[in-house]
Description:
Elements: H1 8-21, E1 26-28, E2 35-39, E3 47-51, E4 55-56, H2 59-62, H3 69-78
Antiparallel strand pairs: 1-2, 2-3, 3-4
Amino acid sequence: MTTSRMTDDERWAFAADRVYLKDIRITQIAGTSNRYVASSGSCPQRVYLVTGMRDCTCAAGIGGDKVCLHRAAVGLKLGLIDETPFPEVAA
Length: 91
């Protein structure tokens, strides 16, 4: 069985789509140009520090994954990620 991996662009699009599903909220930190606080999609009491689209303190970010919901939320806010929903895959 052959499995195909998503490209980075597909992963960003998928993450951007999930930003809305998980209701990720971001707030820019006053006095900064690219630092944000992002809500967690799974734990309402938790927030993450996001630096542009480069760094995030969530598990994915700390683990070295360059794609996460929180950075996707920042990318959407800054217009760096297209808001076109990720196409649904037929089962």
